[in-house]
């Protein structure tokens, strides 16, 4: 036991010894480092570091317990190579000493790499170990002189020489090795043997072909003392240069690293005063409409010679094309000039001995196609007519709806000259709840035969009719005297309007002017009215319209349709005075055709309507004075018609203010029927504002025939008959105007059928 412990302790002590260095190989290397050194000794297995002096080896590998391979770092002087393991570091001794030796110089680049054979070129030499250089040679010839700028740079003056040589640097350590990086080529100075052309304008810009030798690597081309505007080295024998501005005769010289070409008669260039030119411009035609082709011809003349080069054609200052002169003439054709006025010019750029010049302006006017003008006239004429008819239909339907809302229903069916109106809330039974002008209901009235209360609301009107015919039938129960008031009213209103070949007079005895317009329009509307208070009701309206109009004189037709939505209210201010207001929005799609021009556009239309209506009765004569106003605003989008004409966006306002009175007088007749003749007289003022300027082309009626401005009057009259069974029939007629110059007849027939 004791012997084993002792042996184990001896082995452990032996393995824990510090390393020892017995020798190194090699013992020296360059100061830059990088030398591979073999280190021999002992206890290297656990080596953690190898140092050259105080500097760690660049790298090391433990080959065995007795050997390490290490790479020397950079350093100077003589240093000890030591090895370290966990037990310590080897002791320094003469056997581990490593000596750094100075390195021979190197040349890594030179600039420039070429120079003349006569020498004298200043060359910048870059490399390493250049400090304390004792010689710089170009091949076998010592430099004319050199200066050591730093350990990495020398400036040397090349001696005379020929061919390609290596530039070497020598120090006390040695001489730089030759390489491709240090090669310097002796070249001959360039020569200029010919130029063409030998003359050019004083303004410069002449392209000159320079012929010579050793032109490769040219760094400058000069005309006298002035650098060329630009140049291109084509080969060792050819350069193309652009002359600068100048005067008189000058030498053209070329400079390379080998020197500058010597002057001679062969390189002489003369700046000549440029010849004045004049440019004239003509056109094949003045385009009368969009898309027609026109050819512009420029003629450039000079006092001597025939100008050559390029002509640029411009429209209102913007280039539209170029053409090359041939015998002093250049032509350019175009078919895309836009509608309007164009100022065309032709500019000659100048060439050689010829000055630049610009032609006087040539004004061309591209007209609007005649059918595009007609299409615009159609749009201006008809769209306001459509808006006016829609305004009358919508405001009239709403006015009736408000009136019926306050009168507990009204007529079920009312035909008129403008259409047919259906009121599904109508129920004019004999026994009803009466409503005064303020909207207050009073339940009174009895059966007309018996005086008993009216029948219930669900009794059949057909039963009543048969009861009236067959007096022997069993008596029916008396109708209920009171009908439950209705707060909701659903209504439909259909109105048709038509215009047939009417025109506007100039003055008495002079005749008529303007477009003959005819066509028809349908407005279908429906709505829902709610009586919120006895004297206040509100409602919503929706509708559809379609139209088809023809303007014969301009061969035009405008069709389209659209929808409407809006709201309205009515207010009984006093028992005899009612106020109402309405706002609607319509979106209309138009399709216009005039001759060969066609276009589609949309209109967004707002309408506001308001009015006051009175109701007075004296001696059984009903008097209804009223004052009403509606106004419409419409925006129509811009579009391009099929002939390529831009029809710009348009806004217009139109409307009507009316005032008048309606009189009706009921007359009792046989069989309990009542006949009520009526007569109404109204004064109207139509107003309009349109921001669309009419396109003017001679001979085409472009101004709107329908101005929709001025005073007009309407007279309406007719006869209504209420039969014993409750049915009402009526006929009537109206004569009035649309604007101050158009007259319209309207015929109407009305009928009302009571039902439960």
List keywords for this structure.
disordered N terminus, single chain, six-stranded mixed sheet, 756 residues, disordered C terminus, mainly beta, 3 helices, 16-stranded antiparallel sheet
Blueprint (SSEs and pairs):
Blueprint (H helix, E strand, L loop, with lengths): L1 H14 L4 E6 L2 E3 L5 E7 L6 E4 L2 E2 L2 E6 L2 E5 L6 E8 L2 E2 L7 E5 L4 E6 L2 E3 L5 E7 L6 E4 L2 E2 L2 E6 L2 E5 L5 E8 L12 E5 L3 E6 L2 E3 L5 E7 L6 E4 L2 E2 L2 E6 L2 E5 L5 E9 L2 E2 L7 E5 L4 E7 L10 E9 L7 E6 L2 E7 L4 E6 L5 E9 L8 E2 L3 E5 L3 H37 L6 E4 L2 E5 L9 E3 L5 E3 L17 H9 L18 E18 L6 E22 L2 E16 L4 E19 L2 E18 L2 E18 L1 E3 L2 E16 L2 E2 L5 E2 L2 E15 L2 E2 L5 E17 L19 E13 L5 E10 L5 E10 L4
Parallel strand pairs: 2-10, 12-19, 21-29
Antiparallel strand pairs: 1-3, 3-7, 4-5, 4-8, 6-7, 8-9, 8-10, 11-13, 13-17, 14-15, 14-18, 16-17, 18-19, 20-22, 22-26, 23-24, 23-27, 25-26, 27-28, 27-29, 30-31, 31-34, 32-33, 32-35, 35-36, 35-37, 38-39, 39-42, 40-41, 42-43, 43-44, 44-45, 45-46, 46-47, 47-49, 48-49, 49-52, 50-51, 52-54, 53-54, ...
Give the overall shape: elongated
- Could you tell me the strand content as a percent range? over 45%
Low-confidence stretches: 1-15, 409-418, 423-484, 501-515, 750-756
Terminal Cα span = 133 Å
Strand elements, count: 57
Tell me the Rg in angstroms.
Answer: 56 Å
Q: Number of helical runs?
A: 3
Largest sheet: 16 strands, antiparallel
Query: What level of helicity do the residues show?
Result: under 10%
- Give the helix/strand class: mainly beta
If you average the pLDDT, what whole number results? Answer: 79
């Amino acid at each position: 036991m004791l012997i084993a412990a002792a042996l184990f302790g001896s082995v452990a002590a032996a393995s824990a010894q510090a390393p020892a260095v017995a020798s190194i190989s090699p013992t020296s290397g360059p100061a830059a480092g990088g030398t591979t050194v073999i280190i021999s000794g002992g206890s290297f297995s656990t080596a953690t570091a190898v140092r050259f002096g105080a500097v760690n080896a660049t790298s090391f590998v433990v080959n065995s317990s007795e050997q390490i391979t290490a790479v020397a770092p950079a350093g100077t002087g003589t240093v000890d190579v030591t090895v370290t393991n966990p037990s310590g570091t080897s002791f320094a001794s003469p056997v581990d000493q490593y000596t750094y030796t100075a390195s021979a110089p190197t040349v890594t680049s030179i600039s420039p790499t070429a120079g003349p054979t006569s020498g004298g070129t200043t060359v910048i030499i870059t490399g390493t170990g250049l400090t304390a250089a004792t010689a710089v040679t170009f091949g076998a010839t010592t430099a004319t002189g050199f200066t050591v700028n730093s350990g990495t740079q020398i400036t040397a003056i090349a001696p005379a020489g020929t061919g390609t040589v290596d530039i070497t640097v020598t120090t006390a350590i040695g001489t730089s090795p030759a390489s491709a990086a240090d090669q310097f080529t002796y070249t001959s100075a360039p020569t200029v043997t010919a130029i063409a052309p030998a003359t050019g304008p004083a303004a410069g810009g002449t392209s000159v072909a320079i012929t010579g030798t050793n032109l490769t690597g040219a760094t400058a081309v000069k005309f006298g003392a002035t650098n060329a505007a630009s140049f291109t080295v084509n080969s060792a024998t050819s350069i193309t240069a652009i002359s600068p501005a100048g005067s008189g005769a000058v030498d053209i010289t070329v400079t390379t690293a080998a020197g500058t070409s010597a002057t001679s008669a062969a390189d002489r260039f003369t700046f000549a005063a440029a010849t004045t030119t004049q440019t004239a411009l003509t056109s094949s035609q003045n385009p009368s409409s969009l898309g027609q082709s026109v050819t512009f011809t420029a003629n450039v003349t000079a006092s001597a010679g025939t100008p050559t080069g390029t002509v640029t054609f411009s429209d209102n200052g913007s280039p539209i094309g170029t053409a090359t002169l041939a015998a002093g003439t250049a032509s350019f054709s175009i078919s895309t000039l836009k509608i309007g006025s164009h100022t065309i010019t032709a500019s000659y750029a100048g060439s050689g001995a010829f000055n630049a010049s610009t032609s006087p302006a040539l004004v061309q006017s591209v007209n609007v196609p005649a059918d595009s003008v007609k299409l615009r006239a159609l749009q201006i004429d008809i769209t306001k007519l459509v808006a006016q008819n829609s305004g009358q239909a919508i405001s009239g339907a709403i006015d009736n709806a408000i009136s019926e809302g306050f009168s507990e229903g009204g007529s079920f069916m009312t035909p008129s000259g403008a259409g047919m109106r259906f009121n599904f809330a109508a129920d004019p039974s004999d026994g009803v709840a009466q409503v005064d002008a303020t909207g207050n209901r009073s339940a009174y009235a009895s059966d007309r035969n018996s005086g008993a209360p009216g029948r219930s609301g669900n009794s059949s009107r057909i039963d009543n009719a048969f009861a009236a015919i067959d007096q022997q039938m069993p008596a029916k129960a008396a109708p209920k005297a009171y009908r439950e008031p209705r707060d909701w009213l659903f209504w439909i209103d259909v109105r048709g309007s038509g215009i047939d070949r009417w025109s506007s007079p100039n003055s008495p005895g002079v005749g008529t002017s303007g477009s003959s317009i005819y066509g028809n329009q349908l407005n279908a509307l429906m709505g829902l009215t709610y009586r919120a208070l006895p004297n206040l009701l509100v409602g919503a309206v929706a509708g559809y319209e379609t139209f088809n109009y023809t303007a014969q004189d301009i061969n035009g037709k405008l069709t389209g349709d659209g929808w409407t939505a809006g709201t309205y209210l009515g207010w009984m201010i006093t028992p005899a005075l009612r106020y109402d207001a309405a706002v609607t929005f319509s979106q209309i799609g138009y399709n216009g055709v005039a001759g060969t021009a066609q276009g589609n556009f949309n209109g967004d239309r707002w309408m506001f309507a308001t009015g006051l209506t009175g109701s007075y009765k004296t001696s059984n004569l009903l008097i209804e004075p009223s004052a009403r106003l509606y106004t419409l605003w419409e925006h129509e989008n811009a579009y391009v018609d099929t002939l390529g004409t831009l029809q710009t966006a348009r806004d217009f306002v139109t409307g009507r203010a009316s005032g008048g009175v309606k009189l009706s007088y009921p007359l009792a007749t046989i069989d309990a029927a009542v006949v009520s003749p009526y007569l109404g007289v109204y004064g109207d003022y139509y107003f309009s504002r349109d921001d669309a300027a009419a396109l003017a082309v001679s001979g085409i009626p472009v101004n709107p025939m329908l101005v929709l401005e001025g005073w007009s009057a309407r007279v309406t009259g007719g006869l209504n008959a209420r039969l014993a069974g409750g049915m009402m029939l009526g006929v009537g007629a109206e004569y009035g105007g649309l604007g101050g110059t158009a007259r319209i007849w309207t015929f109407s027939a009305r009928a009302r059928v009571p039902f439960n």
